[in-house]
Amino acid sequence: MSSNGRDPNFCQDCGSVLPLPGLSDTVRCPRCCLCTPVTEFLGREIQSGVIFNPAEQTSLALEEEENSELKGPVIDRRCTRCNKEGMIYHTRQMRSADEGQTVFFTCIHCRFQEKEDS
């Protein structure tokens, strides 16, 4: 924490993560454009790293996902592809919070997928 009790890694106005200090004498918030003096970062050590998953592990996970059983609540909805009854559904909030959820349906017979904005 800095001397005034706030974390200098975050903008004091909007709370966004600040970029790493560069060659200029200030760090500019990418969201609200507030400039923070680079002296706020003196004496701080910043470390980062990237970990890649092995390719074999990733392809196995995708294969398992394709061969897995469909899970979820089954409803009486007719598939538009195979015309059979029975679809599994799940919901996600894909749009803004003041709009309805998006419902994703998957046919238990042919695995056809469709969505409906509610």
Automatic annotation (TrEMBL):
Residues 75-115 form the TFIIS-type domain. GO terms for biological process: termination of RNA polymerase I transcription. This is DNA-directed RNA polymerase subunit. It is found in: Nucleus, Nucleolus. Zn(2+) 1 binds at C11, C14, C29, C32. The lineage of its organism: Eukaryota, Metazoa, Chordata, Craniata, Vertebrata. Core component of RNA polymerase I (Pol I), a DNA-dependent RNA polymerase which synthesizes ribosomal RNA precursors using the four ribonucleoside triphosphates as substrates. Can mediate Pol I proofreading of the nascent RNA transcript. Anchors into the Pol I active site to monitor transcription fidelity and cleave mis-incorporated 5'-ribonucleotides. InterPro entries: Rpa12/Rpb9/Rpc10/TFS, Zn_ribbon_RPA12_C, Znf_TFIIS. PANTHER family: DNA-DIRECTED RNA POLYMERASE, DNA-DIRECTED RNA POLYMERASE I SUBUNIT RPA12. Its main location: nucleus. A zinc finger (C4-type) spans 11-32. Keywords: DNA-directed RNA polymerase, Metal-binding, Nucleus, Transcription, Zinc, Zinc-finger. The keyword Transcription applies. SUPFAM superfamilies: Zinc beta-ribbon (SSF57783). One of its GO terms (cellular component) is RNA polymerase I complex. It comes from the Eukaryota. Pfam families: Zn_ribbon_TFIIS (PF01096). The keyword Iron does not apply. It comes from Oryzias sinensis. Belongs to the archaeal rpoM/eukaryotic RPA12/RPB9/RPC11 RNA polymerase family. GO terms for molecular function: DNA-directed RNA polymerase activity; nucleic acid binding; zinc ion binding. Zn(2+) 2 binds at C79, C82, C107, C110.
